[in-house]
Amino acid sequence: MSSKTKSKLEITAIYLILAIVSVIIFYPLLWTIGMSLNQGTSLYSSSIIPDNFSLEHYKWLFSPQSDYLLWYKNSLIVAFANAIGSVVLTAFVAYAFSRFKFVGRKNGLYIFLLLQMFPVMMAMVALYIFLNMIGLLDSLTGLILIYLGGQIPFNAWLVKGYFDTIPKELDEAAKIDGAGPIRIFWSVLLPLAKPILAVVALFNFMAPLFDFLLPSIVISSEENYTLALGLYNFINDQFANNFTRFAAGSVLIAVPIATIYLFLQRYLISGLASGGTKG
């Protein structure tokens, strides 16, 4: 087989794989958007290309009969608190492990690596009891607390790897100018770590918007529902038939994520590429 023929076969295989992956990704998305524009509420009478386009389901979500805006507000509160809190906590933890030598540092890194192997769901019974003991069960504060604690091992390891790529000579130069550890962290490392912190912020902003299992365990009051919990109730009841409204609500979840992504886009590629280069 000639090299030219082999090259054509490789390119064909690549395009074939990309086509299959595109269908797997975009087909459910197109179905969801199409379903949200169908009239009626039935799943079986909906089509991917509606015969009569309608925005009635979107209008209903913003009507007084729906609690969708309340769920949206709760989800955004949790998402922004988780994103901001994760960036602050992760930056301090990663800075300590990257720049300081202390007893238990090596074992702490091993523990972070080990904890990444176990999902937070394994600790849900203990977390449920803990939140009940401190009076934060069935509250957004308790939910935020679990998200913040659960993200530390992975993100601290990721950000530490990025901090390790920043030359320590910059720290030494700042020390000569009289800067202390906090000033070095704030004025030297943080400006250079914007890409990886943007990655942490985006990932931890997205997690509460998509997560269903954790809020379903922690939250029980309807006034504290997040979007995932609220939308699930559209189709959970025995006689519920609100699949088109469910689809419309799902489509709108993408709005804040797309906004944050566009805002942080210039940092994301370099942050993802550099975070795991050293550890």
UniProtKB/TrEMBL annotation:
Membrane disposition: Multi-pass membrane protein
Chain ranges of the ABC transmembrane type-1 domain: 72-264
TM spans (from-to): 12-33, 76-97, 109-131, 143-163, 184-206, 246-264
Compartments, record wording: Cell membrane
InterPro entries: BP-dep_ABC_trans_perm, MetI-like, MetI-like_sf
PROSITE patterns noted in UniProt: ABC_TM1
Alphabetized UniProt keyword annotations: Cell membrane, Membrane, Transmembrane, Transmembrane helix, Transport
Highest rank taxon of the organism: Bacteria
Entry's family note: Belongs to the binding-protein-dependent transport system permease family.
Name by which UniProt lists this protein: Maltose ABC transporter permease
Species of origin: Oceanobacillus neutriphilus
